[in-house]
Amino acid sequence: MFRNQYDTDVTTWSPTGRLFQVEYAMEAVKQGSAAIGLRSRSHVVLACVNKAQSELSSHQKKIFKVDDHIGVAIAGLTADGRVLSRYMRSESINHSFTYESPLPVGRLVVHLADKAQVCTQRSWKRPYGVGLLVGGLDESGAHLYYNCPSGSYFEYQAFAIGSRSQAAKTYLERRFESFGDSSREDLIKDAILAVRETLQGETLKSSLCTVSILGVGEPFHFLDQETIQNVIDTFEKVAEEEEGEAGEGEAEGEAAAAAAPAEQGGSGDQDVAPMEM
Questions:
Q1: Distance CA 215, CA 141 (A)
Q2: With contact defined as beta carbons under 8 Å apart, do 188 and 213 qualify?
Q3: pLDDT digits (tens, 9 = 90+) for 204-247
Q4: What sign for the dihedral angle of Cα 168, 173, 179, 182?
Q5: Residue 270 binned pLDDT confidence (cut-offs 50, 70, 90)
Q6: What backbone phi and psi angles, to 5 degrees, belong to 119?
Q7: Spatial CB neighbours of 184, under 8 Å, sequence gap ≥ 6
Q8: Torsion of CA 72, 78, 83, 88, to 10 degrees
Q9: For 115-153, how does the pLDDT look when each residue is reduced to its tens digit (9 = 90+)?
Q10: CB–CB of 93/99 below 8 Å?
Q11: What domains, with CATH codes, occur in the chain?
């Protein structure tokens, strides 16, 4: 059986129980530039890689403000991401106007998932080809959710999506247990380091990443390029100092190892009794 018999529209199931159009949309997320999110008990940081189509063009915006307490980072089709971020902004405004209180993050994520899921049931629609990392703060604390094109959503302590995101996930998995108690500055540093993991050898500069943060007493906002560059310079300086100390330690160890046989040889000559003539 050929796959193209079952991927003409999103409502056709394959014999193996798969919806190929949904899988194609999820594949589009993997082709987008990387987006990273992580949270502590009081703050949420969203970061993304600034990817331009050519050296002559500017990069497209990948992080959007929904409200003072909610932000979203996207990977995949930017046009779809703009549509969904506008929908989220509208939902938040309507809730605030009706109930005179901020929209809970979990409720917004459910609305977003329902909107994405409808596109998997209608033959005249296509799934949204974008993944969204939704970070927010409400009465129950800080939250980070991932919404995928299938309509599913998951809550994470830290997560990465997009191209080369596996390297960032590996870094986050090694450190996620400490994120809950992390300070604002440490959370920003870990987000930038995770972004660096996705560059695969390319030098990290402030122009290559966008970082946003929200938290208790701190509405959603973007960090300026100077602040990001200062963070990069700080941990690079620390890394150089650690390498220098490690190099000195190795040199001292080699010198000590070389001196040991010489001392043993000298003491051996002294212990030998003189020959009788």
A1: 9
A2: yes
A3: 888 889 999 999 999 999 999 999 999 999 888 877 777 766 66
A4: negative
A5: very low
A6: -70, -10
A7: 40, 42, 43, 213, 215, 218
A8: 0
A9: 999 999 988 889 999 999 999 999 999 999 999 999 999
A10: no
A11: 3-223 (3.60.20.10)
